[in-house]
Amino acid sequence: MVDLMRDGALAIITLNRPEALNALSFAIIRDISAAIDEAAGWDIRALVFTGAGEKAFCAGADIKELMGRPLMEERAGAELGQRTFAKLDTFKVPSIAAINGYAFGGGLELAMACTFRVASPKAKMGLPEIKLGLIPGYGGTQRLPRLVGEARALEMVMTGRTVGAEEALAMGLVNRLAEGDVLEAAKTFAGEFTGHGLPALTFARDAVRRALGTPISEGLRIEADLSTLAFRTADAVEGLTAFVEKRKPQFQDR
Question: With DSSP H G I counted as helix, E B as strand and the rest as coil, what are the percentages for the chain, rounded to 5?
């Protein structure tokens, strides 16, 4: 369900579950982790993520897997996603998300963990967890404000609204819009920096990230705590159940 291939100086990881809009099951997250580790052993200049099919980069978590879990499993699930995506923070070369369609929830969190994002003009993005009585748990509350600022991040997280590609570009959520094939656009973008020396590229990334203030590792611990607590609420049970039953949730603020 996760394919890894080499294309010249690039490694390409494809989420290959188009029948489910490339949704993130825990098995797929583990496969992503393994693919990142394997690519780390290759002589490459950049790592590119994309989604199979024409509709979605990744539509988010596999909702049915999130229901009815014990407390510690909920915490472990958040930490698995965070730990996997955080590998991109220290990966030896820059990474690019080629967003070819929907990027919601965990899918957008994966894209935000990449160094850069290139999107189709038809792409749609959002963190809709609040609509399920939850909050993002794979790094969304920490990476989004670092990309778009606190006010815009809070608006997206607290309303759960979807943003289109043009708005995402304007707010800094994506770096480029593709004029044609998104994967080819991502490859072209990669060519703009892959010719530079890896030490300098690494130093540049480190210098910028060290200037961001609160270490993301601390922010991720906070997010994991609060995400786990959100799962324990009655509203979360109602939100997840309503999603599976394809109805509007009736939250009770408890």
Answer: 50, 15, 35
Classify each residue of 132-146 as buried b or exposed e, where b means 16 or more C-beta atoms within 10 Å of its C-beta.
bbbbbbbbbbbbbbb
What is the pTM (predicted TM-score) of this model?
0.92
Active site residue 73: no
Is 150 among the catalytic positions? no
What pLDDT, on a 0 to 100 scale, did the predictor assign at position 222? 87
Instruction: Give me the catalytic one of 129, 179, 192, 245.
Output: 129
Catalytic site residue from 54, 109, 167, 192: 109
Q: Which domains does the chain have, with CATH numbers?
A: 2-180 (3.90.226.10)
- pLDDT tens by residue, 39-77: 999 999 999 999 999 899 999 998 989 999 999 999 999
Structure tokens at 225: 């705590």
